């Protein structure tokens, strides 16, 4: 089981804070983990948090968004 899968599972159950705790505990974050956390925020109507995470993604982790990231962000602002 991957970190991203666990984050996704918690978020789908509505446990967004637990998902964020897992995300924060990850030794190394990748685009998949960011996408899982941002999607969880959007699914649970935490749109601003998803956008804040997107804004910090490149700054904090130096990761570039992929196509999935952009779809999630568009969902957050729709």
TrEMBL record:
Give an example GO biological process: RNA modification
PPR repeat ranges per the UniProt record:
1-33
InterPro entries listed in its UniProt record: PPR_At4g14850-like_plant, PPR_rpt, TPR-like_helical_dom_sf
Looking at the record's lineage, which domain of life comes first? Eukaryota
Q: What NCBIfam families does the database record attribute to this sequence?
A: PPR
Q: Any keyword Repeat?
A: yes
Keyword annotations for this protein? Repeat
The answer to whether UniProt assigns keyword Repeat to this entry is yes
Q: Kindly give the Gene3D superfamilies that the UniProt entry links to this protein.
A: Tetratricopeptide repeat domain
What is the organism of origin for this protein? Noccaea caerulescens (Alpine penny-cress)
Q: Name one GO molecular function term.
A: RNA binding
Q: What is this protein called?
A: Pentatricopeptide repeat-containing protein, chloroplastic
Q: Tell me where the transmembrane regions lie.
A: none
